[in-house]
Amino acid sequence: MYTRILVPLDGSETASSALETALQLAVDMKAELRPIYVIDVPILAFDSPGFDPTIIRDAYEVEGQRVTAQAEARMKQRGVTGTARIEEVSAPGEDVAERILLAAADCKADLIVMGTHGRRGLRRLVLGSVAERVLRGTTLPVLLVSSRAQAAALEAGASS
Questions:
Q1: What is the pTM of this model?
Q2: pLDDT digits (tens, 9 = 90+) for 34-59
């Protein structure tokens, strides 16, 4: 039985599917849900002469507010308790996965539910996988909701 579920969100459909899965688990187990949006301004934004990286950071902040407000509305609609929050990668070299792991420890989560885009090959090598780094960095159970599972569910719904 889980009592506190952390669900990282990034505004994607895959993360929205993970939120839906986490919501259902929270309802079934009467668990608290902790949605989190992590702001990570690309390091290249700081290296561009004449470019103000706060423009990107502010855009992420607005997106984070939109995403967390939607998550809280969905939680309220389903009668799920918890609070969404926005975190920001802080230390140089820290990444989104590390911030998610710190948030899980901070809120004493006993389950992480997150979406995975299922990238393979060169795209995965270049872009990395936040889900994989979270999975490797924690001893908590992690439920991964794949974008392929979402596509299959949409396809099955369309053919019914």
A1: 0.84
A2: 999 999 876 655 556 666 778 888 99
In this predicted structure, the answer to whether residue 160 has a pLDDT above a threshold of 80 is: no
Domain boundaries, given as residue ranges, for the chain: 4-159
User: Is 52 strand, coil or helix?
Assistant: coil
Sign, CA dihedral 36-125-119-61, equals positive
Between helices 54-78 and 13-29, what is the axis angle to 10°? 40
Rounded Cα–Cα distance for residues 31 and 81 (Å) = 8
Superfamily of domain 4-159: HUPs (3.40.50.620)
Local structure of residue 92 (DSSP, 8 states): T
Inter-residue contact 10 to 113 (CB < 8 Å) = no
